[in-house]
Specification:
By secondary structure, the protein is of the alpha+beta class. The strands form two sheets. It has a two-stranded antiparallel ribbon with strand order 1-2. A two-stranded antiparallel sheet has the order 3-4. A hairpin with a 7-residue loop joins β3 and β4. It is elongated and about 50 Å long. It starts with 20 loop residues before the first strand and ends with a helix. This is THAP-type domain-containing protein.
Length: 126
């Protein structure tokens, strides 16, 4: 099963090239930095374990200094690696982007409201 890059506006998948894909880290602090840098609001409510199991970022989103090339067989990230290279504007020039799901930047108030709604929702189901 191919891996797809979770970065916004990135369409790379593992079957297209020999490009490395990296799981989100299980460390909560580092994982949070990955999510923040991706700017995908839909990943904010996922646990580090969920992100590690289901989401990947391709090597194009990491500075070359963050990638360890000590092994000829595997591409490994440094322990402190955080993705910093993202194309957050290509959708503006792409006429096909209107058919893709848009990622909305949420304000602090909107995030707080969504979190409150999610914590109240299970009580309403009973």
């Amino acid at each position: 099963m191919p891996n797809f890059c979770a970065a916004p506006n990135c369409t790379r998948k593992s079957t297209q090239s020999d490009l490395a894909f990296f799981r989100f880290p299980r460390d909560p602090v580092r994982c949070q930095r990955w999510v923040e840098n991706c700017r995908r609001a839909d990943l904010e409510d996922k646990t580090p374990d969920q992100l590690n199991k289901h989401y990947r970022l391709c090597a194009k989103h990491f500075e070359t200094s963050m990638i360890c090339r000590s092994s000829p067989y595997r591409t490994v990230l440094r322990d402190n690696a955080v993705p910093t290279i993202f194309d957050l504007t290509s959708h503006l020039n792409n006429p096909h982007s209107r058919h893709r799901k848009r990622i909305k930047e949420l304000s602090e108030d909107e995030i707080r409201t969504l979190k409150q709604q999610k914590s109240i929702a299970p009580a309403n189901i009973r």
